[in-house]
């Protein structure tokens, strides 16, 4: 593949990389797998993933550091979370060693696609696992495929992190005791309709409430929500149906242990949101996307941080976490996995 890529003008789009990693599970046993050059494959018309959506996925990034190394951020947590997701969907979990082996092999084979330091671009890695054998009676599939693909993606924010306007959704993302806490593909299928509606109305994202009482903040379609109080402490909504974001869990450690901030992980009601000074959506793609306003059925909740820039506390969190990810700041033990 020609590597004369215009890194700073990349979007967040699929492009086939030179290589992908593929492994198969039969009779509950995962094989070693290996690299493939083919972005297309044959699948049976009755495969479990196609009939009953038996699939889950992960998302992480490989970065080039200032001194030229290639690193990934806490991939062991992606491996663990994919195992948890798989178990909940009756998919045999991919062993962590296989996940890590695939990651090293994949990124190494596609080294030329890891954007240079300072470009703001990264190599996005998408691991996923799905039922690949035919199923017609409702049951788990007998065979599974694990794939890990990657593509270079541009900076999430071009020309600075501009705050977005989001809305409180009338739809629910995840039922109590449902699959909200795992990265199931089906959670995304169900959020597409609500997401498109929000976009048509001019909002960047939906914020979902807890479906049982519709009074508490859950999260956005693909990002957790965090708040900063007027006296500068971090407030993180807590609920079993919120997806355990690795970015959010890392920000909690950065805030508490590195920046010495007070961190409160607890239920957060919609009623108390106007009291907060800053709000952000957090996930691998953006790290932190600042929220300037939340629209709640015509009522506007405008944060004092405004619509021009990310607020001071979130900026500090953002700079510290991205500094760690890019190798500019010392990382807590075990956070950086170098691809060798
Ligand atoms: C993946 C995901 C996130 C973000 O998780 P990270 O590990 O930080 O990328 C947040 N919410 C949902 C629903 C997700 O699927």
From TrEMBL:
Residue positions where N6-(pyridoxal phosphate)lysine is found in the record: 183
Keywords: Aminotransferase, Pyridoxal phosphate, Transferase
Entry superkingdom: Bacteria
E.C. numbers: 2.6.1.42
Cofactors demanded by this protein: pyridoxal 5'-phosphate
Pathway info: Amino-acid biosynthesis; L-isoleucine biosynthesis; L-isoleucine from 2-oxobutanoate: step 4/4; Amino-acid biosynthesis; L-valine biosynthesis; L-valine from pyruvate: step 4/4; Amino-acid biosynthesis; L-leucine biosynthesis; L-leucine from 3-methyl-2-oxobutanoate: step 4/4
A GO molecular function held by the record: branched-chain-amino-acid transaminase activity
GO biological process, one term: L-leucine biosynthetic process
Name recorded for this polypeptide: branched-chain-amino-acid transaminase
């Amino acid at each position: 593949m020609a590597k004369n890529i215009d890194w700073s003008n990349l979007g967040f789009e699929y492009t086939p990389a030179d290589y992908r990693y593929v492994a198969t599970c039969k009779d509950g046993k995962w094989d070693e797998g290996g690299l493939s050059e083919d972005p297309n494959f044959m699948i049976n018309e009755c495969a479990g993933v196609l009939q009953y959506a038996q699939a889950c996925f992960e998302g992480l990034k490989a970065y080039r550091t200032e001194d030229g190394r290639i690193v990934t951020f806490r991939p062991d947590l992606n491996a663990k979370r994919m195992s948890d997701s798989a178990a909940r969907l009756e998919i045999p979990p991919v062993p962590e060693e296989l996940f890590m082996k695939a990651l090293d092999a994949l990124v190494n084979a596609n080294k030329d696609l890891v954007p240079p330091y300072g470009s703001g671009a990264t190599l996005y890695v998408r691991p996923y696992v799905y039922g690949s054998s035919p199923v017609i009676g409702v049951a788990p599939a007998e065979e599974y495929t694990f794939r890990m693909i990657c593509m270079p993606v541009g900076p999430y924010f071009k020309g600075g992190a501009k705050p977005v306007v989001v809305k409180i959704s009338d739809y629910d993302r995840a039922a109590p005791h449902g699959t909200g806490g795992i990265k199931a593909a089906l959670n995304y299928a169900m959020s597409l309709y609500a997401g498109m509606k929000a976009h048509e109305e001019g909002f960047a994202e939906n914020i979902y409430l807890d479906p049982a009482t519709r009074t508490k903040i859950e999260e956005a379609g693909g990002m957790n929500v965090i708040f900063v109080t007027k006296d500068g402490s971090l407030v993180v909504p807590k609920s079993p149906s919120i997806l355990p974001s690795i970015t959010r869990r890392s920000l909690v450690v950065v805030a508490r242990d590195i920046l010495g901030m007070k961190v409160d992980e607890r239920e957060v009601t919609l009623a108390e949101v106007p009291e907060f000074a800053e709000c952000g959506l957090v996930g691998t793609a953006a790290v932190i996307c600042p929220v300037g306003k939340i629209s709640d059925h015509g009522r506007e909740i405008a944060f004092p941080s405004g619509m021009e820039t990310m607020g001071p506390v979130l900026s500090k969190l953002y700079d510290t976490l991205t500094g760690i990810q890019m190798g500019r700041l010392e990382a807590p033990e075990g956070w950086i996995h170098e691809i060798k």
